[in-house]
Amino acid sequence: MPIAGKIGNEIGGVFACYLCIAVMFLLKHNIYELISVQYYLITIIIPIFLLFFLMPHCKGTIEISHVDALLIILFVWVFIHSIVTGVSIDNISKFGILGLFYILCKCCYKKTINLEIIILPFLVVSGIESVLFLLQYFIGGADTVMPSGTLGNSARLCGVLMMLTPFCILMFKSSNNVFKKIYATIFILNNSVIILAFSRAAIIALLIAYIYLAYKNNYIRFSKKYIILCVVVVCLILSLLVVLKYDSVVGRLLIWKITLLQLYPNFLLGKGIDSFIPLYNNAQSLYFAKKIGVFDKESSVAGFVAYPYNEILNTLVELGLIPCIIVVVIIYILLKTKTESTVGIYLKSIILATLVFSMFSYTSKVYLMLVVFTICIAVLDVSNSEKKAVVVLSLNSVIKYVCAAFLLFIIFFQSLSLVKYIECGQVHECFASGRSSMALNDCEKYVKRFSKSYIIMAEYGKILYDEAEFDKCTEVLDRVANRFPDPKILVLQARAYMKINEYGKAEQLLIKASNMVPSKFEAKYWLFKLYQKTNMERAMVVAKIISQQPVKITSDYVMKVKQEVSDFLKF
Asked: Is residue 351 helix, strand or coil?
């Protein structure tokens, strides 16, 4: 797949689109962390790439295969599910972009452009991200932001790098000397980041991909000696990864256990996109309600959970069983082909690696991973010589105009969303930096605009509490807790109820928060303070639990709580 035969304007067009990504590196750290501006930038850049680069190359016909038919069913299911469960248009546009990316990749690949042109911008961006990560890792203190992740949350970045690394090997083998050096450099950078970040899911996934590639390229053979060697190596690496982060392993096993035991009634039809957070954390609170006063390993590692760290469980809870079955069938169709090209082998290794990564992490929450996975499926389906077309569609001008109109709408809509969310980040920063000094009238004019942002609403609830508007505070925090039941929000809501003598509601919230995160002291401490006013016998019971609870991280607050409880028990 040499690039030399391509017209310079084509390459320039690709990099002109991806030049916008440079904006991501200039974003402030707090804006990225709080409102995910990078997601909106990506959902603007990708449609620009599709509209101005891929669409002009779409000619002739497109063959609708069995994989395409299944993907259409999956898209319709997600679309209907999103409407029924009240998901925002933002999620619908996200899947719409992926659908168009898939169609345009199938139309262009092999006909007018090759895989290298499609994937090259992603590889360059991954190299830039890796350099920024390494600078931040070794120098430290740099306010550096990457499109896929930060030093504080490297799993997102490592997931993207893991998927793109096999592409580096493929391009290295088929390019000229100049590009060989570029791909080799990106390969070394990406692997270095994955190892230094110690992303266990990415390490395991990449190891599986390398073993698969070594077998398919005849570096290892299907013999007893090589099988034993591979099993021993994999077991040693897995054991090392488990030992080095044992608490994290126990935590993920706990999440899977509670999800399977408590949330299985939702597995058939699902509860909607982003419904996992409230469903799971409420289930975790009920689980530990049966183990009050028991300080085992599970209670010590339990925390507020935002992801199930398993895409199968996440899909079952949010979308139901049917999407899981469809995805499994699609992957089976793509992997079962016997006649394999070089491109097909490497794409299969990426799909296998992504499946392994998805067993331990959150692929669907990283949009760039979804984009790269879409490219892999589209190109592999085109490369499959055994497939038979179900329907053949002609790409006439009407279809192109409809697609172009849809892309322009998405670019416009996501641009407005980006502007709004940047302003949302600025408002949040203003709220958080000076809650008590800001007048309520000034807050309320922002709250009306950003009522769907739980971050803004949570800060607004804190301002209401500081201003002694306790009735309104409880109403605002109740709306936040329904979508994002963070124990800290529940505790603040309970404290507001205590101020207006609603002790029954405060008790329910504090019990829920203390059971949700049994290793923390804050909810138990305020439950102890509540019972001091209402029931001294229960206050004594809670005080004994607090005094016996082991301390994971020593802090002034924890020592103060321990001392106060100790003094209470003495009297």
From this structure: helix
Q: Locate all alpha helices (DSSP H) within 434-535, ordered by sequence.
A: 440-449, 454-466, 470-483, 487-499, 503-516, 522-534
Give the integer Cα–Cα distance in Å for 506 and 516.
15
- Which pLDDT tens digit goes with each residue over 150-195? 445 677 888 889 999 999 998 888 877 778 888 899 999 999 989 8
HEC string of 227-286 equals: HHHHHHHHHHHHHHHHHHCHHHHHHHHHHHHHHHHHCHHHCCCCCCCCCHHHHHHHHHHH
Backbone angles phi, psi at 226, to 5 degrees: -70, -35
Q: List, in order, residues 6 or more apart from 562 with CB less than 8 Å away.
A: 546, 547, 551
Q: How far apart are CA 13 and CA 40, in angstroms?
A: 21
Q: Per-domain residue ranges for the chain?
A: 8-245+336-414, 434-570
* Residue 427: burial class (beta carbons within 10 Å; 0-12, 13-18, 19+): buried
pLDDT, tens only, 206-248: 988 998 888 888 776 666 677 777 778 778 877 877 777 888 8
CATH for 434-570? 1.25.40.10
The dihedrals phi and psi of 61, each to the nearest 5 degrees, come to -125, 165
CA distance 480 to 484: 6
CA-CA distance, 424 to 35, in Å (whole number)? 8
